[in-house]
Amino acid sequence: MIKEASNQFKVQLMCSLLSVSASGYYAWLNRKPSRQAEKNLELTKKIKALFDEEKSRAGAPRITKRLHQQGVHVGKQRVARVMRQQGWRAKASKKFKATTNSNHQLPVAPNLLQQNLCLGQSLKIIYSNI
Questions:
Q1: Which of 58, 104, 111, 120 is the right S-S partner for 62, CB 3.0 to 4.6 Å?
Q2: What's the pLDDT score for residue 125?
Q3: Distance CA 50, CA 32 (A)
Q4: Pairwise CA distance, residues 68 & 79, whole Å
Q5: Can you list the alpha helix ranges (DSSP code H) found in the chain?
Q6: Residue 60 CB: number of other CB atoms within 10 A?
Q7: How far apart, in whole angstroms, are the C-alpha atoms of residue 66 and residue 57?
Q8: Read out DSSP for 84-115?
């Protein structure tokens, strides 16, 4: 917030309004990321690679299992937390629904044309189901 507005207002003024010391703000601004933050960034990259490889179908349990297979020991809750922070949610795969059932004893419509169509006779037989 202070960094974005620093070209319009003095940093000292903004720090005093927000009850933050200027030296504390500059120390925070120039601080290196912690080891945990670096590990989380590395873990996020690995999770993203696996998530994309699974076409967004893998959740935290499956990704955790795959990370264990790769030698990365991390808990399911941590993977779930990283995925939640990044906004990644697994899509449920849709079940296959059979649209045709050929195992029935219902009568089949008779073939009235008997497939006797000659090539020179276009539009001679027109069929409609009204």
A1: 58
A2: 62
A3: 28
A4: 12
A5: 2-5, 11-17, 22-30, 35-53, 60-69, 76-86
A6: 20
A7: 13
A8: HHHT--PPPPPPP---------PPPPP-SSTT
Give residue-wise pLDDT tens across range 17-69. Answer: 889 898 998 898 889 989 999 999 999 999 999 999 988 889 999 999 999 99
Distance CA 83, CA 35 (A): 20
Cβ atoms within 10 A of the Cβ of 75, count?
A: 11
Question: Quick one: which of 33, 84, 36, 41 has its CA closest to 60?
Answer: 84
- The arithmetic mean of pLDDT across residues 78-85, rounded, is 95
67 burial (CB, 10 Å; 0-12 / 13-18 / 19+) is: buried
Residue ranges covered by each domain of the chain: 1-31, 35-86
Position 22, amino acid = A
pTM: 0.57
CA–CA distance, 22 with 10 (Å, rounded to integer)? 11
